[in-house]
Amino acid sequence: MYSSHHAAVGAALTVGGHLAAGPVGVLVGGALAFLSHDPVDRLGEAAYGRSFPPDRQTLIWEGLPFLAFILAAVLAGPLWWVLATGWIAATGMDLIDKARWFMGRPTVFRCHDRAPDVRLTLWQTKALAVLAAPVPFGLVAVIANAGAAGQLLATFAAICLGAVAGVAFMFWLLTRPGGGL
Ligand SMILES: [Zn+2]
Fold first, then answer.
1. Residue 15 has pLDDT above 90, yes or no
2. Which residues surround the ion ligand 1 when the cut-off is CB under 5 Å?
């Protein structure tokens, strides 16, 4: 999947970790975020466009959620690193394997060696990106103890995250090998 999808899951895990146990919780959440990359990659994205060098479609659909994520981290103030940790950890397997790809080396993570269980259509990939993009703002509202507006945003983001997880789970359930309900 694309980084915006991984990042929403990763940030939810590190922010959840921070709420539960402070900085130590972020470490645990970060480890889970790193591991979350594999199951999330069971969903196969449809390409927005050319990824390297990125064309306009890729820049829009990957770039805007990334900018939103940075803005959310800035809004988090001193807790920016909780979101940054979630982003880096959740996209870590891609960062490592892409660096290796640039060096002409084989990939090391099996999620990049296997066909995804589910092939999303372009429409579904974009819909999940639209749902994933607001998630970091809601997470910031939660850790920054925001007021009423922040709580509303957090609720909205939680619904988006729930929808992402729910839709992903349904795809998995309906299409896994030997699948069906
Ligand atoms: Zn990946």
1. yes
2. 41, 94
